[in-house]
């Protein structure tokens, strides 16, 4: 199974190798930039040019949460390996850690001087890696929102 998103504002889940569409999700109002499965496989997070991050419940076949707080397009998203946290990277030069349980932004990480283009949680740690159009990588401890 693979998930794709594109300029049509829709994510699609495909069965491989046959290429059949198993499911699709509509709701974003601009291009999709990222799709990431929750480690348990029960949910999906997507990021979009519409400045939002959405959480989708695959068994309900719909969006269960829209996270808003970025000022510009969101370029990437990622699930934390433990717990209910999602990371987002935005063209507004910030990245955010969202608490899915409380439906709120837990931390905003500032320090890049240009668009933050990717975010990834290092497995089984509190370390987050971000990359930016300012040609830098940053490692963060998301418990303290400090650069490492």
UniProtKB/TrEMBL annotation:
It comes from the Eukaryota. GO terms for cellular component: axonemal central apparatus. This is SPG16 protein. GO terms for biological process: axoneme assembly. InterPro entries: WD-F-box_domain-protein (IPR050995), WD40/YVTN_repeat-like_dom_sf (IPR015943), WD40_PAC1 (IPR020472), WD40_repeat_CS (IPR019775), WD40_repeat_dom_sf (IPR036322), WD40_rpt (IPR001680). Keywords: Repeat, WD repeat. WD repeats lie at residues 25-66, 67-108, 109-148. Transmembrane segments: none annotated.
